[in-house]
Design a protein that fits this description.
heterodimer; A: rod-shaped; B: mainly alpha; 15 helices
C-alpha cells in the first residue's frame, strides 16, 4: 500500500469543507430564486 | 564573451536554475505592478470615503475621475504587470530554461509601461472621465485609447514570449515528462489572454479612430459586446493565473502535490473553453441579444467553467491536507488545518484567497450571473461586492502570497519586517471580506454602483434607502480603510525588502 492510499492520509477534512461550500452555494442560490419570486410575482 | 552558463544562477534554497535576463524582467514587471497597486490603493481610499455617505470625501467630478483611475490601475495595470512576471516565472524558472527572445520581453514591458502611464496621465488631466468601461458615446481623449492599445499589444508580446520559452524548453529538453501543472495553468491563462486582448483591440482600435474623428460613430451595443470580451475576460486570466498560484503556493508552503494532475489539467482546459463565455452576464439586460442567447451562455456554458472552479476548490485544499497529513497531522478531521503554518504569510494568503474567492466571489458570481436573478442586482453595489471578492480577495491576495517567495528567489533578499509580513494577509484579506460583504448588503438594498449621488440629491427626484444601507456603507468604509493599511503593509514589506532586506548569496 502506498503512503497516499493510507486511510489517515485521505483528505477527509477537505471533503467536509467542500460539502459546507456546496451547502452554502445551494442555500444562497435557493434564497435568491425565492427572493426573485417574492418581488416579481406572476399573475 | 558571455557564455550561456554565465547567464544562469542556481537558487540555494529551491535548487531552481534562474536565467538572469528572465530574473531582470520578472523584477521590473513585479515592481511596476506593486507601484500601480500602491496608486490604485490610495485612490481606493478616496472612493471608499466618498461612498461612505457620512464622509462623502470627493466632489462628483473627482469621484468619477478616481473611479476611472482605480479601475485601470487595479484591474488592468497591477494585475497584468504581475501576470507578466508570473508568465516569465512559470516558463523560464519552473522549466529550468532560458527566457526566449528577451528583447521582445523588454518591448512588452516598455509598451505596457508607456501605455499605462499615458492612460493614467490622461485620466488625471481630466481628459478621460469615462470610467473603466468607457462606454460609448462617452468619449475620452484619443491618447487614452492609444494608451490602452499599446498596453494590450505589450501584453500580447508577453504571451508570445511565454509560449516561445515553453517551446525552447521542450526543444532543449530542460524538463522531463509533461510541463508542470503551474506552467500548464499559466499557458491556459496566456491563451485566454490572447483572445481577450484581441477583443480589446477590436473594441478600442475603432473607438480610438472615432475619438480621432476618422470614424463617424460607434455602435454602443457592438462596443459593449466587444468591450466585455476584453473587460471581463481580463478577469478570467486572473482566475486562471490565481489558481495556478494556488497550486504553486500549496507546493511551496507545505510540499503539496496535486491529487490527480489529469483532473486538474482537465479543469484548466474547461476554463480555456468556457470561461470567456461568462463575460456574457454583463449583457443580460441589453436589448440587442436574444433571451435564448443569454440563457445558453450564462445558464449552461458558463457552468462548465464553474465546474472547473469546483474541481480546483476541492483539489487545492485536499492536496495541502494530504501533504500535512503525511507530516504527521492525522488526528481527526482538522488537525492538519489547525497545525498548518498560519504564521507563513504565503500559506495564510493561500487560504484567505481560496475561502474568500469561493464563498464570497464564486457563489455570488454564479448566482448573479444567472439571467433571471441578475435582474435583482444589475448595476447595484452588490456587483462590485462580487468582483472585489474575486479580484482583490482572490487574485490580489494570492499574488501577494507568492510575492513572499518571489522576493527571496528572484530579488535574492530575505523578507524584511517579518512580523508585518505575517500579519499582512490577515489585515488586508479579512478586511476585504468585510468590504465585499458590506457592498453586497448595500447592493441588495438597491444602492447603485458607480454613483456619487445615490440619493439623487441633485436630480429631479430623490431616492431614500433602508437605514441599514447607512450602516453597511459605513462598515464598508471603515473596512476599506483597514484594507488600505493592509495594502500599505504589503508595499512596505516589498519595498523594505528591496531596500534593507538581507542579501541572499547564490
Amino acid at each position: 500500500m502506498s503512503e497516499f492510499d493510507r486511510e489517515e492520509h485521505k483528505p477527509k477534512g477537505s471533503f467536509v469543507l467542500i460539502m459546507i461550500f456546496f451547502g452554502t452555494f445551494a442555500l444562497l442560490y435557493f434564497l435568491n430564486w425565492k427572493y426573485l419570486t417574492d418581488i416579481w410575482k406572476i399573475g | 564573451m558571455t557564455t550561456a552558463a554565465a547567464l544562469f544562477r542556481t537558487c540555494p534554497a529551491t535548487g531552481l536554475k534562474v536565467h538572469l535576463p528572465a530574473q531582470g524582467l520578472i523584477k521590473i514587471n513585479a515592481v511596476t505592478a506593486i507601484v500601480f497597486l500602491l496608486v490604485g490603493g490610495i485612490v481606493a481610499l478616496t472612493l471608499a470615503l466618498t461612498r461612505w455617505q457620512a464622509v462623502h470625501l470627493l466632489n462628483d467630478e473627482w469621484f468619477y475621475r478616481m473611479l476611472t483611475l482605480h479601475g485601470i490601475a487595479m484591474l488592468v495595470a497591477w494585475i497584468v504587470f504581475f501576470e507578466m512576471a508570473v508568465l516569465y516565472f512559470a516558463s523560464a524558472i519552473l522549466l529550468n530554461t532560458r527566457l526566449a527572445v528577451p528583447w521582445l520581453a523588454w518591448t512588452q514591458y516598455v509598451l505596457m509601461f508607456v501605455g499605462a502611464a499615458m492612460v493614467a496621465v490622461e485620466i488625471l488631466l481630466g481628459r478621460a472621465d469615462v470610467m473603466f468601461t468607457s462606454y460609448v458615446p462617452l468619449q475620452a481623449d484619443h491618447w487614452y485609447y492609444l494608451g490602452i492599445i499599446l498596453f494590450a499589444v505589450g501584453a500580447i508580446l508577453g504571451c508570445v514570449v511565454f509560449f516561445a520559452t515553453v517551446n525552447a524548453a521542450r526543444v532543449e529538453k530542460t524538463y522531463e515528462g509533461s510541463i508542470p501543472l503551474v506552467t500548464f495553468g499559466a499557458a491556459i491563462a496566456a491563451l485566454i489572454a490572447i483572445v481577450t486582448l484581441a477583443h480589446g483591440a477590436a473594441a478600442f482600435i475603432p473607438t480610438w479612430l472615432w475619438a480621432l474623428g476618422l470614424v463617424p460613430m460607434m455602435d454602443a451595443e457592438i462596443y459593449r459586446l466587444l468591450f466585455w470580451g476584453f473587460g471581463h475576460s481580463t478577469q478570467q486570466i486572473n482566475v486562471c493565473a490565481m489558481v495556478s498560484i494556488w497550486y504553486l503556493l500549496g507546493t511551496l508552503t507545505v510540499g503539496a502535490t496535486p491529487l490527480n494532475e489529469k483532473v486538474s489539467r482537465s479543469a484548466f482546459v474547461l476554463y480555456g473553453l468556457f470561461i470567456m463565455i461568462a463575460s456574457e452576464h454583463h449583457l443580460l439586460v441589453d436589448p440587442g441579444l436574444s433571451a435564448a442567447h443569454k440563457s445558453w451562455n450564462t445558464g449552461y456554458f458558463m457552468h462548465l467553467a464553474v465546474l472547473a472552479s469546483m474541481i480546483h476548490a476541492y483539489s487545492v485544499p485536499a492536496a495541502t491536507e494530504v501533504a500535512l497529513r503525511k507530516q504527521g497531522y492525522t488526528k481527526g478531521l482538522f488537525e492538519w488545518l489547525k497545525k498548518a503554518p498560519w504564521g507563513n504569510p504565503a500559506w495564510s494568503s493561500l487560504f484567505i484567497s481560496l475561502v474568500g474567492f469561493g464563498f464570497i466571489g464564486g457563489i455570488t458570481g454564479v448566482v448573479y450571473g444567472t439571467e433571471q436573478i441578475n435582474i435583482i442586482v444589475h448595476n447595484t453595489l452588490a456587483i462590485p461586492g462580487h468582483f472585489h471578492a474575486t479580484v482583490v480577495v482572490g487574485t490580489t491576495v494570492a499574488f501577494m502570497g507568492v510575492t513572499y517567495y518571489v522576493l527571496p528567489l528572484i530579488f535574492q533578499r530575505e523578507v524584511a519586517f517579518p512580523t508585518v509580513a505575517r500579519l499582512q494577509p490577515y489585515v488586508f484579506g479579512l478586511s476585504m471580506y468585510v468590504v465585499c460583504i458590506g457592498m453586497i448588503i448595500a447592493g441588495r438594498f438597491g444602492v447603485p454602483r458607480r454613483s456619487w449621488d445615490m440619493n439623487g440629491v441633485d436630480g429631479p427626484f430623490q431616492v431614500s434607502f433602508d437605514p441599514i444601507v447607512d450602516m453597511a456603507l459605513a462598515v464598508t468604509g471603515i473596512a476599506a480603510v483597514v484594507a488600505v493599511v493592509g495594502g500599505a503593509m504589503f508595499c512596505a514589506v516589498a519595498v523594505g525588502t528591496l531596500l534593507v532586506g538581507k542579501k541572499i548569496e547564490g
